[in-house]
TrEMBL record:
Limits of the MrfA-like Zn-binding domain: 860-947
Membrane-spanning residues: 7-28, 34-53, 65-90, 110-131, 164-181
InterPro entries in the cross-refs: MZB
Entry keyword set: Membrane, Transmembrane, Transmembrane helix
The name this protein goes by in its record: MrfA-like Zn-binding domain-containing protein
Organism of this sequence: Candidatus Kentrum sp. LPFa
Length: 980
């Protein structure tokens, strides 16, 4: 109703102005240019009101509209007015004809000419106003840029600021108009008719800017480029894949929701790419605003969203803007592969550099620097401290925090606080902070709470941007059942047999051959040479590597299921193809990995793509208490970066004060720290006497995120004769877990096999040889727990206890499988005897009341070895599940149970995280039942799709695994569970 009244008011003013001009021309006794000018201004005011209301109704920020209108008007009128004024000296004959905007003509017979001069400025002004009101801009950033020329506030994303102060500037042209109104029609030369009306239009435009207000991200839309209809000349993808012999099974479809259509992606400023969600870009780019010390909303943003949802574009845009305005660098911290992330960001902006190598420092000309957390801890923090480079950082970005869980999170927790301590001491407590993490469908995953625990920054709700889990366009999901026919058709191409063994690679070849743009990430078991050989395969005139597309440019996505993505299939794939809206639907094809439970859960999640299925639980683990070895490691590095006192260390790290004190005393006794007394006055004017600690020598032992101590064993390549030949580092206490002889692993794109070190020992380093065959290995072991020391438990039918125990593991050999050579795996036992490991650690015990068979409990242990890493984000080598047949607390009614063991000596905090959430543990058991019930094998046995997996054959047990025994054990305990 209010908008209707406004429209009526605007049109009424236009009518009044028109009637007034007519009356002056034909009914006024004496012709007065003052009255005609007033009528013209009335018409302009009425049109301005009408257009302003129309713009705000269409959810367009009126500020840039008026700024652009004013700019166009001045660009047209100022040269014309100045040229007309100069005509009296440049070309007097033309000046005397009056054929310009400042005519020296008086009298009724010149009424038409003078009216045209008076109204001429309205033409560019009204044309610009209508053009910007109706056409708009291609994206919001372009709209904001149009306001930069007059006042920076128009370009801000802040929705709380007022622009009324611009109205003061409208008084300047208005006062000039009042001062020259007596000259309209007077005997002066030249007559300022066009100047007078131009000033009036300038004043109206400035008032329009003053009355505008930035729109909130929820209301703001970009107006409008007609949407292209999804049309494609490509052949149907499923049919083309079937013609090539790829057997696909349809799993599910994800259709766009009505809610998602209200937030359609808009064009960004990056090379024609489509930004997926405007809220995300607005939230990140708002960090460019000048920092206000007393601002109610911190200059921090936490982005919870699906992969490739626009995070990289938003970061690149913001980093470039910060560098342009303040000359600062954006530092991006990743879990690994800093070069890969740098290449990804480099496609979107210039000046991206990956920090690698021992000489870590911030490049001089860089806009964005990408560094992995290990190099940040071992080298870059020292460079920042010693060369005062911290002041160059304008934005700190913690990227993909879902990749940090368990021991990795424990180390990053300390690294993040070391960095903040350094930045605070450099005068940067107000540093802008951005964090990104993958969304998850289950609300119990508590992503915000995890980030608030992990980082030394608080992210209140107003700083969190949660891009909800909806499909923006149709997505169809499939499973690969067979590639055998297609492999047969490729016999003439002489493809490496290692490559032929991968369904992921063979399906990708078929998809590329259909001419569909296809995305695929090389599976982690292939080395750099094999990946290069795959890229050089030719199906036609062009190599496969040159035909693969980035995920956002792909119409088909071949995705191998792993522990890290099985519960988040849609979050990984739903934004694929967002740059090619003419190719729909987006096809996602799943291929299986080594974990049978992950394969089933990935397919189950894909079948629930319509949102009808219950989301699986997921828990990212951030230890509440630091491991003593982690405290020692990071205190040594922190005190080398900057000396400090006990109170200062406690203030920054918030570790247990007693643990910090004892660690410092031990390091001083070993002469690893220098100590001196200092006196200072605290904030309460009290004299404080404390010890100041300093480490003058940089620790020469690296600190990989998956290790905890300083006593590390080096894996090295003897073929590397120049530079550092280290391949990795292992905790000495975990030597048999990750350093057993003949273990095969990849490092730096090369596949290695650990030599048998038992003849010479492995006190400090172990030799590794290069391996050509595609081989997968795991250790053959007999795990045990002894000396259970449990705290009071909880639960009714399912009992949970946390405590401590001695873990004993006997490694007798290794299990290996070459997919390109054999269909089954084989066990190889060591001839020189077994390798024993024992240490005290944390345990979580699950006790079951009633009759429980030994076969059932050992089979359940194997099931949880598959299930737990999929839902808790921890490596399979970070825990063990061990059956126990005695030692449970008396009176509990439970005689048999399972022990989940933290495989880091002393415990890294995994157990406390799991034990604190009883619903999560029950959810694990409920999803285990779902998985095993879905398997079609004989209940009295097991198959490769459930409990007879590659890794299951590495456990020395007294009886084979039985799917039916697990179901009979768990069904009474999970009846009625809602699969939390």
């Amino acid at each position: 109703m209010g908008r209707f009244i406004g429209y009526l008011l605007g049109l009424s003013i236009v009518g009044i102005g028109t009637a007034w001009i007519v009356f002056v021309l034909f009914g006024w006794p004496t012709l007065r240019w003052t009255q005609l000018g007033s009528g013209l201004i009335l018409i302009a005011v009425g049109l301005a009101i009408f257009c302003h209301l129309q713009v705000t109704h269409r959810k367009i920020d009126a500020g840039p509209v008026w700024a652009s209108t004013l700019s166009i008007t001045l660009w047209v009128m100022l040269p014309l007015l100045f040229g007309s004024y100069m005509l009296q000296w440049i070309y007097p004959p033309w000046w005397n004809t009056g054929g310009h905007l400042l005519p020296d003509l008086v009298g009724p017979k010149y009424i038409i000419q003078t009216l045209l001069v008076l109204g001429f400025p309205v033409l560019p002004w009204l044309s610009a106003l209508l053009w910007r009101s109706l056409r708009g801009w291609k994206d919001r950033e372009s709209a904001h840029e149009s306001g930069h020329w007059i006042v920076g506030a128009i370009a801000q994303h802040d929705t709380s600021g007022s622009r009324l102060w611009v109205a003061w500037f409208s008084l300047i042209p208005f006062l000039v108009m009042l001062g020259t109104v007596d000259q309209l029609g007077g005997i002066v030369s030249p007559y300022p008719l066009a100047i007078w009306s131009t000033l009036g239009l300038v004043s109206i435009s400035l008032i329009g800017i003053a009355l505008s207000k930035p729109l909130s991200p929820e209301d703001a839309v970009i107006q409008p480029v007609p949407e292209r209809q999804p049309t494609t000349t490509l052949p149907p993808w499923p049919e083309e894949m079937a013609k090539r012999g790829i057997a696909l099974q349809l799993l599910g479809n994800c259709d766009p929701t009505h809610e998602q259509e209200k937030t359609k992606p808009q064009s960004s400023t990056f090379q024609g790419e489509v930004s997926s969600d405007r809220r995300l870009i607005d939230a990140v780019s708002s960090l460019v605003n000048s920092y206000e010390h007393h601002a109610s909303i911190p200059m921090r943003r936490l982005i919870i969203a699906s992969d490739d949802c626009g995070q990289a574009e938003s970061l690149a845009l913001t980093a470039a803007d910060l560098n342009r305005r303040f000359g600062t660098i954006t530092l991006v911290i990743v879990a690994a592969d800093s070069s890969g992330y740098a290449r990804q960001l480099g496609h979107r902006t210039d000046g991206v550099a990956a920090i690698t190598g021992p000489d870590a420092s911030l490049p001089e000309e860089a806009v964005i620097c990408v560094v992995d957390a290990v190099l940040l801890s071992d080298r870059l923090l020292v460079e920042l401290a010693q060369h005062d480079q911290a002041k160059r950082i304008g934005l700190l970005c913690w990227w993909d925090l879902h990749r940090f869980s368990g021991v990795v999170a424990a180390n990053l927790w300390a690294i993040a606080r070391r960095l903040k301590r350094l930045l605070d001491s450099s005068g940067r407590p107000d540093l802008r902070v951005l964090a990104t993490i993958r969304d998850h469908a289950n609300p119990g995953s508590q992503r915000s709470a995890f980030v608030n625990r992990l980082l030394p920054y608080e992210f209140p709700s107003e700083t969190v941007v949660h891009v909800r889990r909806n499909c923006q366009w149709p997505v169809t999901l499939y499973r690969v059942d067979s590639t055998n026919k297609w492999i047969g058709k490729l016999q003439t191409h002489n493809i490496d047999r290692n490559l032929r063994s991968s369904d992921t690679l063979m399906t990708t070849l078929a998809s590329v051959d259909t001419t569909w743009p296809t995305h695929m990430s090389i599976p982690p078991q292939f080395n750099a040479l094999e990946a290069s050989n795959f890229d050089r395969i030719r199906l036609g005139q062009t190599e496969i590597g040159k035909r693969l597309a980035h995920r956002v440019d792909a119409g088909a996505h071949i995705l191998e299921i792993g522990n890290e993505n099985a519960s988040s299939i849609l979050e990984v794939s739903r934004c694929g193809g967002r740059n090619i809206p003419t190719i729909r639907p987006h096809h996602v094809t799943l291929t299986g990995g080594l974990n049978p439970y992950a394969n089933w859960l990935g397919e189950h999640t894909a079948r629930g793509a319509d949102g009808q299925g219950s989301p699986p639980p997921y828990l990212l683990l951030c230890p509440d208490e630091a491991h003593p070895s982690i405290i020692r490691r990071h205190l040594l590095r922190a005190l080398h970066e900057r000396e400090d006192t006990l109170s200062g260390l406690f203030r920054h790290f918030r570790w247990d004060e007693r643990a910090i004190r004892e660690t410092l005393e031990t390091l001083v006794e070993k002469e690893m720290l220098f100590q001196e007394q200092v006196r200072y006055v605290d904030d309460n004017s009290r004299l404080i006497v404390e010890s100041l600690y300093q480490n003058r020598d940089l620790p020469d032992t690296p600190g990989p995120l998956d290790t905890i101590g300083d006593s590390l064993i080096k894996l090295y390549d003897p073929e590397i004769t120049e530079g550092d030949n280290a391949l990795g580092w292992l905790d000495s206490e975990r030597l048999s877990i990750l350093g057993y002889p003949d273990r095969v692993f990849l490092r730096g794109g090369i596949r290695y096999r650990i030599a048998d070190w038992r003849s010479y020992g492995a006190s400090s380093k172990m030799r590794c040889s290069r391996e050509d065959r595609l081989s997968l290995t795991c250790r053959i072991r007999r795990p045990q727990v002894r000396e259970l020391n449990l705290r009071p438990g909880k639960g009714q039918d399912l009992l949970l206890w946390q405590g401590r125990a001695e873990y004993i593991e006997v490694v007798n050999g290794y299990r290996h499988w070459c997919p390109s050579e054999a269909d089954v795996a084989t066990n190889t036992f060591y001839e020189r005897g077994s390798i024993d490991t024992r240490f005290e650690t944390d345990v979580l015990v699950l006790g079951f009341r009633g009759e429980v068979s030994g076969q059932g409990i050992t089979s359940l242990a194997q099931a949880l070895r598959h299930v737990l890493p999929v839902h808790a984000g921890i490596d399979e080598d970070a825990f063990e599940v061990v059956p126990i047949y005695n030692g449970l607390p008396e009176g509990s009614g439970a005689n048999i149970g399972l022990t989940i063991v933290d495989l880091y000596p002393g415990g890294i905090g995994i157990i406390s995280g799991l034990g604190a959430d009883e619903l999560f543990v029950r959810g694990l058991l409920a999803w285990t039942v779902r998985w095993l019930e879905a398997c079609s094998c004989n209940e009295d046995g097991a198959c490769a799709h459930c409990l007879d997996s590659f890794t299951a054959g590495a456990i020395i047990a007294t009886a084979p695994n039985s799917r039916g025994e697990v179901l009979r054990l768990l069904r009474p305990h999970v009846a009625g569970e809602d699969m939390l």
